């Protein structure tokens, strides 16, 4: 059984920072690409940032220069450091672990709320 547990969400003022954590149980962490997605009310879920098993990263244009994704394989944890937060960053943030080559899989966490006040 694979579990992804997000933490670190909360309420912050615009311009502030938060660090989200995604801790993975199970044996898939080292072979998975881990992504942070977010979903605001009335909007589709969107990719925020992703880090591959090899450490390559990509992020949405809207967060470039403000958010940084990193992983600690020894702790089976991925972090999303969010700086210079804006009200439009308000959303539920979800962690996803996926692999598109065999063995394929995709797992989601339960989400953590991030609210940025203006």
Report on the structure:
This protein is an all-beta fold and 118 residues long. The protein is 0% helix and 53% strand. It has no helices and 11 strands. The strands form 2 sheets. Strands 2, 4, 5, 6, 9, 10 and 11 form a 7-stranded mixed sheet that branches. Strands 1-3-8-7 form a 4-stranded antiparallel sheet, with no helix packed on it.
Q: Biggest sheet: strands, sense, closure? A: 7 strands, mixed
Q: Please tally the helical runs, counting DSSP H or I stretches of 4 or more residues.
A: 0
- Give the fraction of residues assigned to helices: under 10%
Task: Report the β-strand fraction as a percent range.
Answer: over 45%
Please outline the helices and strands.
Elements: E1 4-7, E2 10-13, E3 18-24, E4 33-39, E5 46-51, E6 57-59, E7 67-72, E8 77-82, E9 91-99, E10 105-108, E11 112-117
In short:
With 118 residues, the chain is an all-beta fold. Helices cover 0% and strands 53% of the residues.
Relevant terms:
118 residues, four-stranded antiparallel sheet, mainly beta, 0% helix
């Amino acid at each position: 059984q694979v579990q992804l547990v997000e933490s670190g969400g909360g309420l912050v003022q615009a311009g502030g920072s938060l660090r989200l954590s995604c801790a993975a149980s199970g044996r898939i962490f080292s072979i998975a690409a881990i992504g942070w997605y977010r979903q605001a009310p009335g909007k589709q879920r969107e990719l925020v940032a992703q880090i591959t098993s090899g450490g390559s990263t990509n992020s949405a244009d809207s967060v470039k220069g403000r958010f940084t994704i990193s992983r600690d394989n020894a702790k089976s944890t991925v972090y999303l450091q969010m700086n210079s937060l804006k009200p439009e960053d308000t959303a539920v943030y979800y962690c996803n672990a996926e692999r598109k080559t065999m063995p394929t899989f995709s797992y989601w966490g339960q989400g953590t709320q991030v609210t940025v006040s203006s």
